[in-house]
Design goal:
The complex is a heterodimer of chains A (287) and B (281). Chain A has 15 helices and no strands. Chain A is mostly helical. Chain A has a single domain, classed as MetI-like (MetI-like fold, Orthogonal Bundle). In chain A, helix 9 runs antiparallel to helix 12, helix 12 packs antiparallel against helix 15 and helix 14 packs antiparallel against helix 15. Chain B folds into 2 domains: 56 residues, no CATH class; 218 residues, MetI-like (MetI-like fold, Orthogonal Bundle), CATH 1.10.3720. Chain B has 13 helices and no strands. In chain B, helix 6 runs antiparallel to helix 9 and helix 7 runs antiparallel to helix 8. The chains are: A mainly alpha (287), B mainly alpha (281). Chains A and B meet through helix 1, helix 2, helix 4, helix 5 and helix 6 of A and helix 1, helix 3, helix 4, helix 5 and helix 6 of B. Chain B: Its main location: membrane. Chain B: This is Sugar ABC transporter permease.
């Protein structure tokens, strides 16, 4: 009787659970399986189990190590430093700015965030090209110009990701700053604490949970950026902006090594899962 | 009160400084946006921001053709509309027992959902491709819709459950005593009361799918089935020299729906996106 009631109550969960098992858990399990095989894209009847061979090969592969390094640079520059700091700065300035300025600036920054990934890629591609807007401005200021997508591709795609992702941090931090009671900051101001000291000793400690949340989500989002880099540089020139998702794609499809590509994917998934777990600990929600 | 006057004048000065700082950052953010809008209207658009030689709608005329714009947009609409519908229906159904009934399984289930929300979907696209080839779902619209829905579901369930918790249970109890089933009270009472919440989940899912490039890029092969997010690359590949004005015009057309949807939802919820409630914890 009780069991039947429980089952009836759980019935509405079935469509969602079925979809999640078939199309999310299934591929993840399959990923964990083919990462240990030598599956290839073409002309192979069946694949065989190779153990940790793919992983061993990866850590000896200079192209893989290069991708790991570029992913680190990309994540630290665009997510930790760029989106996070700029988002916090914008949110803090917005607390003091007049309303019309706040609306206009918020609108522009959020538009960059809402735009489809590929469109954002094209806009920033045009911006950084040799004939593009950035060089036009540098020219006007009599500063040396260069072909950014060729000389500093990883910096260009990092800036693109900052352009695209800052709005999220800005929204998270705006919400967090709004919850700090006015009395606290005013009291500190009357006591003579300057802007930077107030930020460091009062504001930042009070929003530390939001900082943690925001860093985790930014990092996870940045780790899986594909379209933006693909549109701007295809991972090139050479492999100088080839982060792990692009490396994984190249190995699996241009070099037909699905097994190897999936091993890289599994590593990315494991790193993502670790971040997820840290994030959940930070939240410590009472679900 | 000298202290107060001093504070006030200092505050005015600070407001001006803040305004100036914000406008400077916004100008940098606006440059690429200005490029796409101006180039779309410019008869001789190049790669840099400049005042057009004259305004023209020729770029829009050139791209508003079935094979360039209408078919990809229709494909996008079918994929994202189907995916969103499936996501919202499944999420609403799943959120109901999670929000309404106590069970020992709720907590582990929700923690798993939260965990899945954060997984980098990009990483599993290669195995999804391999799996879809095996089960003959590769290059099918329904396969792509199913995957879209599955990848968006964790976050949709999470949001939907949080919104549903905000609807008081007492309102349903009257309906239960009148003999209404769970499904009836969900559809007739709970969902209408959480209209804004459902709107947020719907718009968010749709916007995420509309802008997604990697999933259709991997799972669809036939050019005729490609959504706008993939077909936009043809401006570079197949048509010889790149006509930047047309690329810009297409970008404007393709981006407009999601911007409108965002404005719609942001207005209804009073400025800040309701995502705040979901991610702040």
């Amino acid at each position: 009787m009780r069991l039947r009631r429980t089952l009836t109550r759980a019935l509405p969960l079935t469509p969602a659970v079925a979809l999640l098992l078939l199309f999310l858990a299934g591929p993840i399990a399959y990923c964990a399986y083919i990462a240990f095989t030598d599956l290839q894209l073409t002309g192979q009847a069946h694949s065989s189990f190779v153990g940790f061979e793919n992983f061993r090969a990866a850590f000896k592969d200079d192209a893989f190590l290069n991708a790991v390094w570029l992913t680190l640079v990309f994540t630290v520059l665009s997510s930790l430093v760029g989106q996070n700091t700029l988002g916090l700065a914008l949110a803090a300035l917005m607390q003091r700015a007049s309303k019309p300025v706040r609306t206009v600036v918020g609108g522009i920054v959020i538009t960059a965030w809402v735009l489809p990934e590929v469109v954002a890629g094209f806009l920033l591609y045009a911006f950084f090209r040799r004939e593009g807007t950035l060089n036009a401005i540098l020219d006007w200021l009599h500063l040396p110009t260069q072909n950014w997508l060729f000389t500093l591709p990883i910096l260009a795609v990092s800036f693109a990701n900052v352009w695209r992702g800052t709005a999220f941090s800005m929204l998270v931090y705006s919400a967090a700053l709004n919850e700090i009671p006015k009395e606290i900051t005013e009291a500190a101001e009357v006591d003579g604490a300057g802007g930077w000291r107030r930020m460091w000793h009062i504001t930042l400690p009070m929003i530390r949970r939001s900082i943690g949340t925001n860093l985790m989500l930014n990092t996870l989002q940045t780790l899986s950026v594909f379209g933006l880099i693909w549109v701007m540089t295809r991972g090139g020139p050479g492999n100088r902006s080839q982060t792990l998702p692009l490396f994984m794609y190249e190995q699996a499809f241009q070099k037909s090594m699905i097994g190897y590509g999936t091993a890289v994917a599994l590593l990315l998934l494991v790193v993502g899962s670790l971040f997820s777990l840290v994030y959940m600990r930070l939240l410590r929600t009472e679900v | 009160m000298p202290v107060r006057t001093r504070l006030r004048s200092r505050r005015t000065g600070r407001r001006l400084a803040a305004d100036a700082g914000l406008l400077a950052v916004a100008a940098a953010f606006a440059l690429p946006l200005a490029w796409v809008v101006l180039s779309a209207l410019d008869p001789h658009a190049g790669l840099r921001v400049r005042v057009p030689d004259g305004l023209t709608l020729d770029n829009f005329d050139a791209v508003l053709k079935p094979d360039i714009t209408y078919t990809p947009l229709l494909n996008s609409l079918i994929l994202c509309g189907g995916g969103t519908l499936l996501t919202v229906v499944c999420a609403a159904l799943a959120a109901y027992p999670l929000s309404r009934f106590r069970s020992r399984l709720n907590r582990p289930f929700l923690l798993t959902i939260l965990f899945a929300t954060c997984l980098p979907i990009t990483a599993i696209m290669v195995p999804v491709y391999a799996l879809f080839v095996r089960v003959n779902l590769i290059d099918t619209v329904q396969g792509t819709i199913f995957f879209f829905a599955a990848s968006q579901l964790p976050f949709a369930i999470w949001l939907m459950k949080n919104f549903m918790d905000g609807v008081p249970k007492e309102l349903e109890e009257a309906a239960w005593t009148d003999g209404a089933s769970s499904l009836q009270s969900l559809v007739r009472i709970v969902l209408p009361l959480m209209g804004p919440g459902v709107a947020v989940v719907t718009v968010f899912s749709f916007v995420m799918m509309w802008g997604n490039f990697f999933v259709p890029f991997m799972l669809l092969l036939t050019p005729d089935q490609m959504p706008a997010s993939v077909s936009i690359n043809d401006f570079f590949g197949n048509r010889g020299t790149v006509v930047y004005g047309q690329l810009a015009a297409f970008s404007v057309i393709y981006s407009t729906p999601v911007i409108l949807l965002y404005v719609l939802v942001a207005r209804r919820l009073g400025g800040g996106f309701a995502l705040g409630g979901a991610v702040k914890g």
